[in-house]
Amino acid sequence: MLQMILNEKESYLGNPQVKKDGVIQQWTNAEVQEYAKCMHNPAYFAKTYCKIISLDRGLVPFELYAYQEEMFKSFNENRFSIVLACRQSGKSISSCAYLLWYALFHSEQTIAVMANKGATAREMIGRVTLMLEGLPFFLQPGCKALNKGSIEFSNNSKIVAAATSGSSIRGMSVNLLYLDEFAFVENAATFYTSTYPVVSSGESTKVIITSTANGVGNVFHKIWEGAMQNTNEYKPFRVDWYDVPGRDEAWKASTIANTSQLQFDQEFGNTFMGTGNTLIAAECLLALKAKEPLKRIDRDSVLVYKEPVKKHNYVCMVDVARGRGQDYSTFNIIDVTEGEPIEQVAVYRNNLISPLLFPNIIVKYAATYNEATIVVESNDAGQVVCNGLYHDLEYENMFVESVVHADKIGINMTKKVKRIGCSAIKDLLETGKLIIHDEETILEISTFEARGNSFEASNGNHDDLMMNFVLFGYYTGTSDFQELSDINVKDLMFSQRMHEIENDMLPFGFIDDGRDEPLVQPDDPWGVIQPEVWHDYR
Description:
This protein is α/β, with parallel strands linked by helices.
């Protein structure tokens, strides 16, 4: 049924696949019937006549999945539509087909295609153009203008591309507004505030928003949540990874193995993780990968990711809540051994523990990790824990903020302390100097966002574990932390000196035969201590 326009007088600017304005055509009965089918069914139009570019097969017919047909139906039946879809689900190409259908079968309509960048919007116009070129010319109304930024048809409908700036469509009469990947638009709130009145003034104007999830608190997330709770006019439509044919549990496992659980949740799981205003950069958040703990202790309140190692130095960062089932009392034990990566090794999280009982639990695990230095946020109930640790339990290895005032145990979390701590922990995480294993901690890091002049958990989330690390960030700048490092510098100097002695011995006839003799210790259950850990016993 596809026909080619061979006469240059009938083609647009010499393009034999696009009919120019004013061409008169005689239709057959079959073409009239097809035109009617297409006019009343956008999904039929797309899968019967539209073509797309396949990476493997080139130009191919648009074979719609079941959810894509339902998406067309939702677009057509609702004035305001919002789509949350996983990556590579075909949401953008489906939208392009719908926009072309809308322009062809509705006269005197202005359709605005908007994206974060003008180049992206123009790319979508290119996809629409490709579909137009593949249509039989009995479906084409004729083209008045066609360029990278717009298409105008003989029925006086047009599709225009624009970037999402506040003034991009101001003054225009827009009948259908399409917003692509709206969760990634910068200054989306300003844009939407200035744009919405343009499209909402008419009784039949339509808005279609599509995006992958990109954090909580942004405009896309707010509109989606409102649609799900039926508090706005938008009709929600969701496409999950398992809706796409060919994606099964094996595909999921492989994808997670090649990326991370967090990245999968963000890109394919339609999970609103983090925000555009998070303290930690998005690329760093996506690189964080949780692992299963070695042990779960005290009714899963304590998660152990690495056992204590002899002669390693540890710190225990403590945040105290009131134990009333709301905020959590937490601590994080961190390996700060010189020459080793700074690493989270154990986590405690409980929202029912009393501040009076919390010190006993802290000491139990701090002592296990080589008498770890305990650093407590001393605000409010934290002072109760400080007194319990230092005076009642007589745990001496505690950080004292002031040498002058020896009773000033712990760190008082002021705006200055928080600012310094946030800056330091941001640097540690984004430069890869700090390893995080705990899933709940990663979640809190991902939802720790800017609020006014500070940072805190986004709505509906917690930041108690994150505050352990903000406290740690501040602590890394203290002399106490430097002293921990100095101890390990001495160890490093010892290792370097032994290496120098070895090198000095070689000219005097020492021959390395490649057979390292293992050290044998009576208390070694296997009778052998591996050479790489011999220094633990020197």
